[in-house]
């Protein structure tokens, strides 16, 4: 039996449009590992990730006639995946146990981001978020969380009360966390899915 010749992606897409199962299998082999990793990050459940992965490629096969080999196949495939994830979360709203697991996952994701804010302080995203804070709030955040000064020290330095400092830090942390989430594609998608779960 002759081995199938290696084709570039455009050729594979043209063959897939024509209904060639061999090209479909090659594309699956090329993209399924990274797609599975993407889905695992979103669902944190291997069974769900594999189920969604199969649905992604089923939809790809069903929509093969709409493929444009001159456009990014990766972007096209990941758009399908995002739609499948949204559908998954919407269906989860009907399953109370799964819905609770997903809400716990969302809370864990937000807490994880908050706990790691300081580890990412040198990143461009975090610096941008800090720079967007009002001047006094920015200064309080930098003194307390970057320089490690106590509330009392900052209170004396800035001439404001400890309660005002606490309020500034609460609002600064919230704003920074939101900015980081909006800058993170996976977190943004997860947030969108949770919104769809809560408001189907």
Automatic annotation (TrEMBL):
<dbReference type="InterPro" id="IPR014284">
    <property type="entry name" value="RNA_pol_sigma-70_dom"/>
</dbReference>
<comment type="similarity">
    <text>Belongs to the sigma-70 factor family. ECF subfamily.</text>
</comment>
<dbReference type="InterPro" id="IPR036388">
    <property type="entry name" value="WH-like_DNA-bd_sf"/>
</dbReference>
<dbReference type="GO" id="GO:0006352">
    <property type="term" value="P:DNA-templated transcription initiation"/>
</dbReference>
<dbReference type="Pfam" id="PF04542">
    <property type="entry name" value="Sigma70_r2"/>
</dbReference>
<keyword id="KW-0731">Sigma factor</keyword>
<feature type="domain" description="RNA polymerase sigma-70 region 2">
    <location>
        <begin position="27"/>
        <end position="93"/>
    </location>
</feature>
<dbReference type="InterPro" id="IPR007627">
    <property type="entry name" value="RNA_pol_sigma70_r2"/>
</dbReference>
<dbReference type="GO" id="GO:0016987">
    <property type="term" value="F:sigma factor activity"/>
</dbReference>
<dbReference type="GO" id="GO:0003677">
    <property type="term" value="F:DNA binding"/>
</dbReference>
<dbReference type="Pfam" id="PF08281">
    <property type="entry name" value="Sigma70_r4_2"/>
</dbReference>
<dbReference type="InterPro" id="IPR014327">
    <property type="entry name" value="RNA_pol_sigma70_bacteroid"/>
</dbReference>
<dbReference type="InterPro" id="IPR013324">
    <property type="entry name" value="RNA_pol_sigma_r3/r4-like"/>
</dbReference>
<feature type="domain" description="RNA polymerase sigma factor 70 region 4 type 2">
    <location>
        <begin position="125"/>
        <end position="172"/>
    </location>
</feature>
<keyword id="KW-0805">Transcription regulation</keyword>
<dbReference type="InterPro" id="IPR039425">
    <property type="entry name" value="RNA_pol_sigma-70-like"/>
</dbReference>
<keyword id="KW-0804">Transcription</keyword>
<protein>
    <submittedName>
        <fullName>RNA polymerase sigma-70 factor, ECF subfamily</fullName>
    </submittedName>
</protein>
<dbReference type="InterPro" id="IPR013249">
    <property type="entry name" value="RNA_pol_sigma70_r4_t2"/>
</dbReference>
<dbReference type="InterPro" id="IPR013325">
    <property type="entry name" value="RNA_pol_sigma_r2"/>
</dbReference>
